Amino acid sequence: MQAGAHDAVRALAEALLLPIATSLGARGIVPTTHALHIGVVGTYSAPITNQLVHEADLVLYAGCHTGDQVANDWTVPAPGTAVIQIDVDGLEVGRNYSGVTGVVGDPGIALNDLAAAMDGASGWKGWAADAVGRFDAWRDSMAAHKASDAVPMRVERLCHEISEALPEDAILVADTGYSGIWTGTVLELKHPGQMYLRAAGSLGWSLPAALGAKCGAPDRPVVCFTGDGGLYYHVPELETARRRGLPVVVVVNNNSGFGQGVDKVREIYGDTPGNPDEMNRFSNTNFAEVARAFGIEGIRVERPDEIRPALERALAMKAPVLIDVVTDVEPRAPAAWTPKASTS
Predict the structure, then answer these.
(1) I want to staple 107 with a disulfide (CB 3.0 to 4.6 A). Which of 62, 125, 173, 321 is the partner?
(2) Tell me, what's the pLDDT at 1?
(3) Whole-prediction pTM value?
(4) String of b and e for 135-160 (b: at least 16 CB within 10 Å)?
(5) Domains along the chain?
(6) What is the average pLDDT across 37-53?
(7) Strand-pair partners of 102
(8) Sign, CA torsion 171/175/181/187
(9) Measured between alpha carbons, how far is 181 from 187 in angstroms, rounded to an integer?
(10) Beta strands 20-22 and 171-174, pairing class
(11) How many angstroms separate the CA atoms of 71 and 14, rounded?
(12) Which residues contact 144 (CB under 8 A, 6 or more apart)?
């Protein structure tokens, strides 16, 4: 993403029919609706994407540090898979994978040179079509949730409405945890001019980061996607947004709890007497009222058909706005696929 190799990635993939899987941080390097895009790989992956990358005979990393998240704790791709790694920092090449074919240089230039040196992709055309078809089938399986009129709302519907309302030059800043998983798997970035910024592991990062993004790109719309659990960490920054006049739209996925921890806490709790949900459930806070107390506009959304009008109104105001969206804590975000441990 930082290398600005968007055009080179797209050109190489289209010339050679290479499926494009991205790290979470590089989401949007090509539109997520691109014909060769197969989603985010790693810990925050849709299940099918990890499976597809695990099946690959060759993986080309361009400007990717191959850390534990993008490699799903180094289980994807499969151990022993041929790897080409392009990075401007030579210390990164081969740091996490031995025996890589390394290229030290600007990823954009290297990818353009590689495309010029290749003479076609007939050998893997069928596999590419199968990979894209399987990813599209998974995405289609989410369609009913994206269109759901359930109350309280499903987060897939919220993500769909953001996808449809997000301006073509918008910057979307997502928090970590479930916010990163939902936006990394279900929310679509349809336009080449859109940018995705994600938290690097610190819950609550998205709100102050969105204010920073607006300072750095004052002419672009900035939308922050966070949960109520994340917002609690830095809610006073709403005052900063008002005082500094930073027109950021903050969308709160408000399910009155830490949704990502629900299943894990229940499993650990087991048969212990008591209510495990007390560990990660909050009171029903109206963050629209909290926003107004800080002096900025707050909009409460309780029905799916209210989401898009609220987004459109907030974006048009050119002022800091918080949209408090009441969602259901029970639906689970897509879970990353992990290969079974070898018994040999």
Answers:
(1) 62
(2) 52
(3) 0.93
(4) beebbeebeebbebeeebbbbbbbbb
(5) 6-139 (3.40.50.1220), 143-326 (3.40.50.970)
(6) 97
(7) 85
(8) negative
(9) 9
(10) unpaired
(11) 24
(12) none
